[in-house]
């Protein structure tokens, strides 16, 4: 594949550094010539030196040179954008763990907003997900510690911890009159990147929770499984669920997009340095042979998710359905700094095939769905069905139970139900 033939110095497109840290492969950008640095600002360096000396001499407690310089580095990076950050030894190790899909923590992707920790998305089947944490929640306290004044890396360190220990998140949620307190038990997080099942005969469903190193190959395996479940017949349609997917690896997003495209541009990146300018094109291997696709997105769909949605939308290969996506259109490079640390630096913007930047804008769905809550109305009326009639013919208990379970999963999920109906409608109009 084209994207695999290149050395990729820029691979991180996860939403933001968080309790799940999205990271690229450990391929680092080459150092640029010194001429790129320009002339050093001597007056500013002199001011920095004076402040450094004043702190050493006058601060109420003694501070080591190492701590002061490390904090200075953190400050430089945090002042750039929400995604550039310093990674000490522990954070660097955690970042590497995140790409393998196994790490300790709560299972949420987070960023900063107005000095508070913002939940980008809870990861499927993690402690945070099961505890009821939702995309868009603002964390104002971690246990009893106010979040205001913390930088993101400090907040992440508090949220991470020994598996089996509890932490209380005090959050502000839209629609709630007062802050909510949610207790979450830390655990070893094992993220299953790709899940699949049949919705109905001929119609498949694939859920991608995050973009990891093996997501592309896992997607292909999932499609093969769906075809087998469909008795080796071609699928009539597929729902690709990217809701609350915070992103991950750039090459994984390219691989997923390439699975459904036969030609043309998938995504390209532009930045100041040569290594940040890359182009990714599709190979002629649509695994669905043109069968219609509906991609589900929401406000928790970020970065790599938006690359996939944008590519399929621009090529008119899929209908995008749901709510406006998160809007992260930048790419980060991991650059080593010393033996055990690194910096994660924003080095490029990415663009969809048509040249769109979704930075701070997001992907606008082709079919917009309002956020709704479906509740079953119990009016006491129970209609008589065939199965209630005396001596009715049985359809087989196992098959009946399976049908009930599939129907329940679809009907309890309004966007998924709408996606399935749209796929059926597209096939009728063919």
Any overview of this molecule?
- Helix 6 packs parallel to helix 7 (250-258) and helix 7 packs parallel to helix 8 (304-314).
- This protein has helices spanning 42-58, 65-78, 89-100, 127-131, 152-159, 215-229, 250-258, 304-314, 397-411, 414-429; strands at residues 85-87, 102-105, 108-113, 116-122, 138-142, 145-146, 166-172, 180-185, 187-190, 194-200, 203-208, 237-241, 265-270, 278-281, 293-297, 319-322, 330-336, 342-351, 367-368.
- The chain has a domain at 108-190: PDZ domain (Pdz3 Domain, Roll), CATH 2.30.42.
- The protein is 28% helix and 23% strand.
- The strands form four sheets. Strands 3, 4, 5, 6, 7 and 8 form a six-stranded antiparallel beta sheet that branches.
- The chain is globular.
- The chain has ten helices and 19 strands.
- The relative contact order is 0.14.
- By secondary structure, the chain is of the alpha+beta class.
Set down the secondary structure blueprint.
Elements: H1 42-58, H2 65-78, E1 85-87, H3 89-100, E2 102-105, E3 108-113, E4 116-122, H4 127-131, E5 138-142, E6 145-146, H5 152-159, E7 166-172, E8 180-185, E9 187-190, E10 194-200, E11 203-208, H6 215-229, E12 237-241, H7 250-258, E13 265-270, E14 278-281, E15 293-297, H8 304-314, E16 319-322, E17 330-336, E18 342-351, E19 367-368, H9 397-411, H10 414-429
In short:
The protein is built from ten helices and 19 strands. It has helices at 42-58, 65-78, 89-100, 127-131, 152-159, 215-229, 250-258, 304-314, 397-411, 414-429, and strands at residues 85-87, 102-105, 108-113, 116-122, 138-142, 145-146, 166-172, 180-185, 187-190, 194-200, 203-208, 237-241, 265-270, 278-281, 293-297, 319-322, 330-336, 342-351, 367-368.
């Amino acid at each position: 594949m084209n994207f695999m033939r290149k050395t990729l110095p820029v691979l991180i497109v996860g939403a933001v550094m968080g309790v799940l840290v999205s990271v690229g492969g450990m391929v680092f950008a080459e150092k640029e010539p010194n001429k790129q640095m320009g002339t050093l600002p001597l007056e500013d360096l002199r001011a920095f030196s004076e402040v450094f000396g004043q702190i050493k001499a006058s601060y109420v407690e003694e501070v080591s040179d190492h701590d002061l310089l490390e904090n200075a580095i953190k400050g430089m990076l945090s002042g750039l954008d929400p995604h550039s950050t310093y990674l000490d030894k522990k954070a660097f190790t955690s970042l590497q763990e995140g790409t393998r899909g196994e790490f300790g923590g709560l299972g949420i992707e987070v960023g900063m907003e107005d000095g508070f920790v913002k939940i980008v998305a809870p990861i499927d089947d993690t402690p945070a997900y099961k505890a009821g944490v939702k995309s868009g929640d603002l964390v104002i306290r971690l246990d009893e510690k106010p979040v205001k004044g913390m930088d993101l890396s400090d907040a992440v360190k508090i949220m991470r911890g020994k598996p089996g220990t509890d932490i209380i998140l005090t959050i502000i949620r839209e629609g709630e009159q007062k802050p909510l307190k949610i207790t979450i038990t830390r655990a070893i997080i094992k993220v299953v990147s790709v899940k699949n099942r049949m919705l109905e005969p001929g119609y498949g469903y694939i859920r991608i929770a995050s973009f990891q190193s093996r997501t592309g190959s896992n997607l292909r395996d999932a499609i093969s499984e769906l075809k087998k479940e469909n008795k080796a017949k071609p699928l009539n349609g597929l729902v690709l669920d990217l809701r609350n997917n915070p992103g991950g690896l750039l090459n994984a997003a390219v691989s997923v997009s390439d699975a459904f495209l036969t030609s043309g541009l998938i995504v390209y990146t532009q930045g100041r340095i040569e290594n940040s300018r890359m182009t990714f094109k599709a190979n002629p291997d649509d695994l669905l042979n043109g069968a219609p696709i509906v991609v589900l997105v929401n406000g928790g769909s970020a970065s790599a998710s938006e690359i996939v949605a944008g590519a399929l939308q621009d090529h008119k290969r899929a209908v995008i359905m749901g709510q406006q996506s998160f809007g992260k259109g930048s790419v980060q490079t991991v650059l080593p700094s010393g033996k055990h640390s690194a910096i994660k630096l924003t080095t490029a913007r990415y663009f969809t095939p048509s040249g769109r930047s979704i930075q701070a804008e997001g992907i606008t769905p082709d079919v917009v769905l309002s956020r709704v809550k479906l509740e079953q109305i119990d009016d006491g009326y129970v209609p008589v069905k065939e199965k209630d009639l005396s001596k009715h013919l049985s359809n087989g208990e196992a098959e009946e139970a399976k049908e009930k379970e599939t129907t329940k999963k679809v009907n309890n999920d309004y966007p998924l139900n709408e996606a399935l109906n749209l796929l059926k409608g597209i096939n009728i109009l063919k």
